[in-house]
Amino acid sequence: xxxxxxxxxxxxxxxxxxxxxxxxxxxxxxxxxxxxxxxxxxxxxxxxxxxxxxxxxxxxxxxxxxxxxxxxxxxxxxxxxxxxxxxxxxxxxxxxxxxxxxxxxxxxxxxxxxxxxxxxxxxxxxxxxxxxxxxxxxxxxxxxxxxxxxxxxxxxxxxxxxxxxxxxxxxxxxxxxxxxxxxxxxxxxxxxxxxxxxxxxx
Length: 202
Prior knowledge:
The protein has six helices and three strands. The protein is mainly alpha-helical. Residues 92-116, 181-202 are annotated as: Disordered.
């Protein structure tokens, strides 16, 4: 079991019966459970419908019996004023990436789709204006880049010789095999000389 090697910080998990948020208990800071160890014990940590977690009694008993670890951790308490943004109804709940939360509350919140500044003022118009200006700048940069790449491509093509150049040189006897060639030349040494049957061209 993965817990055999990853259990030293699991004592910082809250005991069974206490619900907690993953980020409040698991992290790299002091007093939090190491993320590697938390994921090792993830199958023994129950996720509730509201998106919060609860340590199972099975995990608590296992850690106590096997390693004499007692779960004594507490979720980090955050200031209630920091839980809500200014200008947004604090009672509304949004759906989180993990699927928890309520969709009904967000549809009844009239300000759910507006941008709010740090002071709580409506900033939707300013944000839309900035996004439009940024889109114009990005599109202009893309057009310049496309124009430059087309011009570079045309210069490269103009500098390349066509296959007809090489075929003409081979027919005229201009392509010869050097002494160190690994591959056989496709053209006999002298174009006009017949090749005896069974003889190699190389």
